[in-house]
Amino acid sequence: MQSIYEQYQLKNVINASGRMTMLGVSTPKAEVTERVGYGLNHYFEIKDLVNKTGQYIAKLLKVENAVVVSCASAGIAQSVAAVIVKDNADLLYNLHTSPQPVAREIVMPKGHNVNYGAPVDTMVALGGGEIVEAGYANECSAAQIAAKITDQTAAILYVKSHHCVQKSMLTVKEAAQVAKKHQIPLIVDAAAEEDLVTYYQDGADLVIYSGAKAIEGPTSGLVIGKHQYVEWVKQQSSGIGRAMKVGKEGILGLTLAIELYLTAKKETGKQMVERMSDFIDDLNKIKGVKAQIVWDAAGRDIARAEISFDQKAIGKTTYAMMAELKQGDTAIYFREYKANEGKVEADIRSVTNEQLKTIVSRIRQVVTGVK
Fold it and tell me: Cα(254)–Cα(266) distance, rounded to whole angstroms?
């Protein structure tokens, strides 16, 4: 019997880039896929399913309320819509066309208005909001956020991500203090973050996570927060949320994935370092290649291998070498954010020890030209 790869002529992938959407994000545990299958093959009152699983997740995380959505991007759009619409029925049905005057401005640090695969401001616009940038690309303080707040401000948005500028930025807790002082909500996009309670405890009113990244659930998202705000997010299922609805299988799969995630023994950064020891030693034996341990820029307990290429000595650009590594029967993907500097990072969380050896072999072939 043909494999899926053979049937559709797809490439095998070694994912050394991390939990990335473009590669399918993560691989859920067997229990989760079984629960997804159960969900696919049974009927439920969907509103009841949404409410009861939300209550169950909220109890697990010790937060006021929670709801499963289709993905983190949908979580951003629906959270923005929620704080704009609230209980206004006309706005719920006519979010982008209603002539009613309503506060639509979403204040966020300039260095957080990033493209994570899609622009943050596109999701805000989808939710009926208008971005107002505070501070500068290399700094944003609590005072600079506060200076942008007017009677047209609907919320503050804080993006916690390695994509964002890290230096000279206010913390979530500081942003929450500004939001509380001005009596407006704080929305935190924490899509790939591993801690499911910190930002809520820091004072955020809505916190958004990807269900398929750190949690390793099916394609889905999670929004947790203050009870009323989450109820307003749920209400968007009759508005813009209808175009981004999550299926019963995703709701059940993510609920179980969260439960398993909270008790699972996770690979620590220290263990990642130990697992990469031979990998880095082998890479450093290749002429023109240097490798070292680096830590996650956003502060998560994730160690990666930074691989630097002497582009002049090798005679190829890093971009060209990365393109070569994606050819053949098995495509190898790295984190290429610093490829213009001749560097890439290998995230080994989804890579087996055998695949690490394959990566070394393929890099050696690309660098030396010898198969």
Answer: 18
Query: Is residue 304 a contact partner of residue 345, using CB atoms and an 8 Å limit?
Result: yes
Token reading at 346 = 């290998």
pLDDT tens digits, residue range 59-97? 999 999 999 999 999 999 999 999 999 999 999 999 999
Tell me the pTM.
0.88
**Which residue intervals of the chain are DSSP H helices?**
4-7, 30-40, 46-61, 72-85, 89-93, 120-126, 142-147, 172-181, 198-201, 227-235, 248-263, 269-275, 277-283, 311-314, 318-325, 353-368
| DSSP of 89-156 | HHHHH-TTT--S----EEEEEGGG--BSSSBHHHHHHHTT-EEEEESBTTBB-HHHHHHT--TTEEEE
The answer to whether residue 303 scores a pLDDT higher than 80 is yes
**CB contact set of 270 (below 8 Å; sequence gap of 6+):** 303
User: How far is 223 from 187, CA to CA, in rounded Å?
Assistant: 10
Q: Which residues contact 149 (CB under 8 A, 6 or more apart)?
A: 107, 156, 178, 182, 184
Kindly report the backbone phi and psi dihedral angles of residue 87, in degrees, each rounded to the nearest multiple of 5, phi listed first: -105, 20
What is the layout of strands, in order, in the sheet containing 303-309?
289-295, 303-309, 343-346
Neighbours of 314 (CB within 10 A): 20
Block residue for tokens 């001005």: 182
From CA 131, how far away is CA 351, in angstroms rounded? Answer: 38
